[in-house]
Structures are given as C-alpha cells and as structure tokens.
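Re-running the complex after MR caught last week's input typo. The corrected sequence lines follow. Everything else is unchanged.
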Amino acid sequence: MRSVWALAAMAALSVLTASTTTLAGEPKQGGVLRMYHRDSPANASILEGATYSVNVPFMGVFNNLVIYDQHIAQNSPETLRPELAESWSWGNDNKKLTFKLRQGVKWHDGKPFTSADVKCTFDLLMGKSQQKLRQNPRKAWYNEVNEITTSGDFEVSFDLKRPQPSLLAMLASGYTPVYPCHVSPADMRTHPVGTGPFKFVEFKANESIKLTRNPDYWKKGLPYLDGIEYTIITNRSTAILAFVAGKFDMTFPTHITIPLLKDIKSQAPNATCVVEPTNVSTNIIVNSTSAPFDNIDIRRAVALALDRKAFVDILFEGQADIGGTMLPQPQGVWGMPKDKLETIPGYGRDVNANREDAKKLMQKAGYGPDKHLAVKVSTRNLAEYRDPAVILIDQLKSIYIDGELDVVETANWFPKVARKDYMLGLNLTGNSVDDPDQSFYENYSCGSERNYTNYCNKEIEKLFDVQSQETDTSKRKPLVWDIDKKLQEDVARPIIFHARAGTCWQPYVKGITIMSNSSYNGFRYEDAWLDK
Amino acid sequence: MFAYLVRRLFLMLVTLFGISIVIFLLLRIVPGNIVDILFAAAGYVDPADKANLEKELGIDQPLIVQYWHWISGFLRGDFGYSYVSEKPALQEILPRIPITARLAGLALLFSVSIGIPLGVISAVKQGTRLDYALRVVSLSGLSLPSFWLGLLILTASVAMFGQMPIFNPNPQTWLEAFATYAVPAAAVGFRSAALTMRITRSSMLEVLRQDYIRTARAKGASDAAVNYQHALKNAILPVITVIGIEAAFLIGGLIVTETVFNIPGVARFLVEAIRWRDYPIVQNLVMLIAVVVVSANFIVDMLYAVFDPRIRYTD
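Corrected-run output:
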C-alpha cells in the first residue's frame, strides 16, 4: 500500500514539475537569453531593493550561502541546497548555525571569496558595519542574530538569541546574496560585483540591463548562456507584442495577467506558458485607532461581507487562491487546510448567510438600511490595487457601507498609511519567502515597520515565538495554522485572495522553473539554455 | 532690425528665468520626493534612514539654497547627479537627446512635407471630392490619439508581418533603420500633419481671395506660380507659427510614442524621472527643453521679420 502512495506521490510531483519546468535533452552552450523587463529598477543592489524588479535581473550576478533548488517549483525546508556554503550544521541547542564555505571561489573582479565577505554582508544587513545601506528593508530578518563569527577563511557562524529554523529560509531567499567586503554599498548600486554565473555589464536606466557569462564560475561548465539581456519596456502591450513577434525569448516572470495569457496563447501557440501563485496577497487594512473602525463589530462585519470567490472570478477568471495569511496549499507550504479555513467567519461558502451576520453586526453598531456608513476606501493608483478596491466597494454596499474610492499616488501611499490618515485601505502584501516568521513578524508583530494597522496582540506574539523555535516542521505547521486562524478572526488584516500570474517562454528556451510559492527566489538562470 | 532682435533676446532671457522658477517650484509642490518613493517601493518608512538620505541628497536644505545650487550649476554646465542612477545627470541626458531629436525632426518633416502640399491642394481644389477626402484625412489625424495609432501600427505589424518595429540601437538592414524611426515618427507626426494641413488650407483660401492673386492670374501667371510663388508665400506665416508651437507640443506626443515604441529618448526618460522625483534630471531636462522651445520661438519671430518686412520695421 505504501508503494502505491509513493507512486501516486511521484506521479503528482512529476505532473507538477512538468507543468512548470522545461524538460529537455542535453544542454547546449551559448546564446543570449533576451527578456523584457517590466520597469527600470531604482538601482542594482538587491540588498537595498524591495521589489522583484531588482531580483530578476541581478540574482544571476550573485550567490547565497544556501539557495532553494532552482528546479523545484515549491520552496520548502526540504529544497534548501548549499551554494557558497558547502554544508551547514546547527549547534546542539539550535542557537548556532555554522557554515563550511566553498574554497576557490572568486569575485568577478578576481579577488578571493572568504568568510570575511559573509561577515561583512550580514553585519551590513544588521546595521553593525561602518558602511551603511541606503535602505535596509529586511533588517528585521536578523533580529534573532546576536553576531556573526568567523573561524578561518572558510567557516562562518551565526550566533542566535534563540533557535530560529526559519533563518535558513531567509538566507536562501533571492533577497540575501553575499556581497564582497571590498566593494562599497554605493558601488554595488551602480556596478554590482558578485560570485555568480553572470557578470554585470551595464545598466542603462529605462533602457536595458546586460549580463555576460562568468567564465570563471565555480560551478564548472556553467552557465550555459553567454549572457542575458533585459530590455526595459514599461508598456505591457508593447512588451507582449514584442514577445509574440519573437523579439524576446521570455516574458518578464509572473508579469502576464490571466486575461492577457489567453491572448498570448492564441497569438503564439508554441510558447510555453505557466501560471503560478506569486505569494502576494491582496488584503484590507483597517484603521482601528479611530471611529468607526475602532469598533470590532464593524471590522468583523467588513470581513464577513467579503465574497472572495467573486474577486477571484472577476479578476483572475477563477485562477487565484483563497486563504489566510500564509499561501494556501498545495503550492503554499504553510497554508491552512481547507476544512480549517472554512471555519473562520467570512470564509464559509454561504456568502448570503455571512452577509446576514454582517448586517446584524452593523445594526448592533447603529447602522442599517436607513443609516449607511460612509467610508473612504484608500488604495494606491495602480491597476492591481484599484481594481479589487472597486469590487470591495461594491460588496460593502450589501452591509450598509457606502464606500468612496480614494486613489493615492505611490509616493504618498506609505506616508499616508503610516500617519493613519485612512479609514479602510486595500493593500497588497508580498512575501519574499514562504515562511511564517517572515510573514508573521513583518506584518503582525507589535512595532514592526510593515505592520500598517498597528495590530498588536501580545498573546499571539508569544505564539509567534513558539512556532518560530519549533524545529520539527510537522509540529510547527499546526501552530502556524492556529495563529493564522486567530489573525483572521481578529480581523488583523483580512486577506481577500492570493494572486496568480503567468510567465511565457519560447519553445527553445530550456531549464526554466517558475517558483510556485515565491516570486523572488528563482532567477539564478545558471543552467538555463537555448535549444537553437 | 537690431533693436527688434535685442528686444526679443531680452524677452527670451526673462522667460527662461521665469520658467526655471516655475519648474523648480512645481516639482516641490508635487507630493513626495525621491526618498518617499524609495521607501514606498520598500513598503516601510524608517525615519532615521529617511532623514539620512534626504541629507545626503541635499533635499533637506531650504528651497532658496536648493534653487541657487541648481541654477548656478546649470549655468556652469554642472547638472549634478541623478538621484536614481547616481551617474552625472548630463551623462544620462546627453545620449538620449539625439534619439528624440531625430524622432522629432522626422515627425516634423513628415508633418511639413505632408501637411503643406496637401493643405495647398485642398484649398486650390476647394469643394471637390479630393478636398472632402483630404479634410476627412486631416480630421482623423486630429481625432486619433498618437498612442492609439502607435499601438494599432504595432499590432497590425505583428498580425500581418510577424515583425515589430520597436527600437533597435544597431539596425542591420535599411528596413530596420527605417522602421526604427520612420514608423513612430509617422505615428506622432500624423496629428501635426493634419493640423498643418488645415491651417495651410484656411490660410491659402483667404489669400487666394485677395485682389493681387486675381491680378496675377489676369497677367497670365501659371497656376503653379500663383499658388506657390504668390499665394503660399503670403499664406505661410500662420503655418510657421503653428509649426513652431507644434514643435513644442511634439515633446508631449513623443512621451507616449517613445513609450509605445520603446524608444529610449528624453521624452520617456523625463516621465520616468518625474515618477521618481529625480530633481536633477527633471529640472535640467525641462530647462533644456524650455531653452529649445524658447529658442524655436525666437527663430520663428526672426523668420516673421524675414518673411514680412512690416514686422521688422514696426515692432
């Protein structure tokens, strides 16, 4: 019986892998991969970036200590692979993580890579070095790290305040490359130097990014490509037409909306296209510091009024996921099981019943058919924000809430949210790794810079710490589910849906895998090749 | 003539000074600066990092200091550094100018070479089927937005030929080189051509009714001589005015066309710089454009004087 299950699991895995991976014969050397880029990134420094517009083109320049297997779509603790580290080990008390480093690795400028570079990188990220990053959006990832110590040139240890198995997940993110000590953060913004398969050639803002093959790459025989060229095309229609016309070998990863995907498939029927979750949730932020949303009943009513399936059907033609904070299964590792999810108020299948409950709560708060609550629904002036906000306003009408769309320019969005100058907001939250620590601490812990709603529950914060220290994944999952359920019940930041998006490439492009639970970690491209 | 030239030059300098103030203040009135945008992209705001960055970029200084720093640098040819790319602003701007200049020049050429002859023909053949047909063409040129026309051309190219004329810095064939500039120039120049044609037509119609035209005909001058030597020369003044104004408007049209055809010129670059609130790029680039536009108007004024002696004698 066990072998039957194993066979079924293997079959399912192969179907999943085949759907997102280009399987091919013997790889060929040569050729330049041409891809369009959706916009011009602010600079080339991944450590300072907070958008995958930086990761996609520049991840190939670097290596991490560890990395998620680039050909398994789902990032999980089981798919962690050594990279600049040859191996890693945890101390007996799980408070010391030691890496044995690879020898003979050179930076693109010829200098040798050593443990000092690792220490420099993480001291920089923890704000302990003399040189500073202009922006350090992921400093909080290393809150539990006491210090980095080196032992000789090829061993480095992370001393932790307490056990934190998730540290490895964060080290494996595309956001965590190792930087050289001898290049300043300012220079890394304009001319990045790495140890990766591709060397930086040039970055012309609004024009192009060019990488060339690193002939001295420490993985012998790799990369297969002679280079990668990204042409920056901000107009999506132009970019897609250019792909259809064969000007590009690949679209920008997860840049194709579901309706546009149909256009591509009809105009370029030979193209390989996949749709995967981006691990970006669309959610509601509620200003609970002032009336009327300081009333928990009204907040709960808003959560009950949501018809999530309608959002998914209208915006994604049914191809998006409904879940809690963590990305739903099967692509998500930590998502709540469906039966547990449906026990959360507002997630039940009977939308009308949910809304009847919501109306009762509204009436309890003093609103009804004759007295509607007028609110402004604030959101960023981007289509992926505006479109769901309009649907939200429509759905809120059913529970005596008259919403008015308040479109805010990007430059003003976060300052406005930070000073609590909003009532109800529609927000997008991207998760760079599918990991509970990253999501919970960043978005829900008291005092976190990205906890826009200032939700603060000391009891739940203790639970964050409990799950964070659990080293057994099977024991950790139920803890994570309970926390996620509690967050939804508290209306901390009601999750509406988790988006999906498409990526296409020409049939001769091989060795590409689109990650199914993160849009930040899968762009090393060292074994991508062109079958031409 | 000399007094006229000096007066115009003085007016030009005053205008440019006013423009510099307007550019500077408008950019500061627009909510948010580069630091806000960078932190917005990162999804958080760290007040200490924000203050450090504002100090590093000098945008924490009083406005008058910032203005003086910029304008004195501009006059010395020191454009400062782009906040985004951290490269010298001049180094970012200069390579893009020839691209846009080529595109704008071709669009203007398209506009003049199509608009003026068709306008003359339309006026001479007033009330005929040809006139009606040309008026429909000109109306459609005024009605169709250039971005729509551009996208239509791209879509049609892909659907019909499987090819797409987007910017190619190293064209291999004559056709590629032609497609790189000519197609977008036609897309953006179509509107200007339509306007030029309408102005030429109405101006020609007015001139063709003048007594001296009748006299020329009575003296036995050929149609071509009457239309092109006598009528067009006098009808061209309002057309020159419109072309001068259109040269400035063209920049607006080019922003969209450069985006649709993915041409890395200054127009699209300017929009991106505004989006990032990259003050050194926006201020210097808009100021350069202002210099070009004001100079173009100055040249138009001089041309007026050349074409119409009454202006240089009376103004």
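None of the earlier attempt is carried over here. The domain at 277-500 of chain A is CATH 3.10.105.10 (Dipeptide-binding Protein; domain 3). Chain A has two domains: 32-231+506-530, 277-500.
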